[in-house]
Amino acid sequence: MRQITATRLGRALAGAGVLTLALTLGGTASFAGAPTTARPTLTGFASLPAATFVPGSEPSGSLVTGNTNGYPTPFADQPIQGFSGIADNGDGTFDVLSDNGYGNQANSADFLLRIQRLAPVFATGDVDVVGGINLTDPDGHVPWQLTRTDRVLTGADFDIESIVKAADGSYWIGDEFGPYLLHFDRAGRLLRAPIPLDGVVAPETAARTGVPATLASSRGFEGLAASPDGRHLYALLEGTVAGDAPGQLRLNEFDRRTGRYTGKRLTYRLEAPNLAIGDAIAIDRHRFLIIERDGGQGPTAVVKRLYVADARDRDRDGLLDKTLLVDLMNVANPKRLGGFDTTFTFPFQTIENVVILDKRRVAVLNDNNFPFSTGRTAEVAEDNEWIVITLPRSLDPDRRVLR
Length: 403
Hints:
four-stranded antiparallel sheet; 24 strands; mainly beta; Tachylectin-2, Chain A
């Protein structure tokens, strides 16, 4: 098993000092001098190898079955992979949310929920792992029994899929098993009981409470956006609630001051009911950037897109107005970054991370579902790729959404 650790971090600390390291990281994700482009263009590429683990951590994957693409289980350490949400720290590092583990509640009890701190280095095509925190509930805010008696949270407890980092350094995270909103402090400690959404119940919660499910499994809060002023969160369900029109998804407004949902609800409609969303973030107080995708990978990947969704509903149909921003299966790559052809594709089953870097640049990351997904090469576990796309024109984002 190939194991990649944060050794570059250790060398930098030993040889150059913390200040030099901070300056280096601060420059890794700056992109001065945006080129003029006729269509979305790949201007940055980096990847983290599939077999990347938290060194010295606990074994994981003992309950995994099926084809693991050459990686024997259990793993000696915790995998870093499976990214399902991203927050920009503004210094060249990003806090990236690891997914719940190995695809379902039953096989993820030994996967520790964690926020990884990563730094892409586009000059070399590498991604440095520079830290991270485990998510815990030491004060007993979760009222039901957790998997571990030490109250370290696992993939059998929550399926964390979306993240917002608040100005005070705390984290709001969207879960799919409730679905719940979870609020953690900067050290990863849960600050209050999980916050449910009235009338929406996932099968995992139904099994625990006996309340009938109104949502399919793994269809909870896949996207979580913050308003530019930070007061409101907008939690987007991945699946359609029972009784709603097929392919229509609820975007729910939550007031951080009151700690309650406001009752305001917007509706996002998928291009087809069999598609799914991968992430949702705010551009300004009206517009959101949303990943929409099919379930294909490799040769079966077709719909992998970024849409701008506008809440002003100019056509008065009761839905967010959608405009295609980027077809991720058709991105110009004139410099052949990453060793790919002049047309770059992002053919991964799950693409679950988007972040706005500046007025004309966005970064997109896949979730590699380690060790299962094989988007680039059949029977080869895929890496987590980190791409930067320059847009033909400015997104005109609210300056407050930029770090």
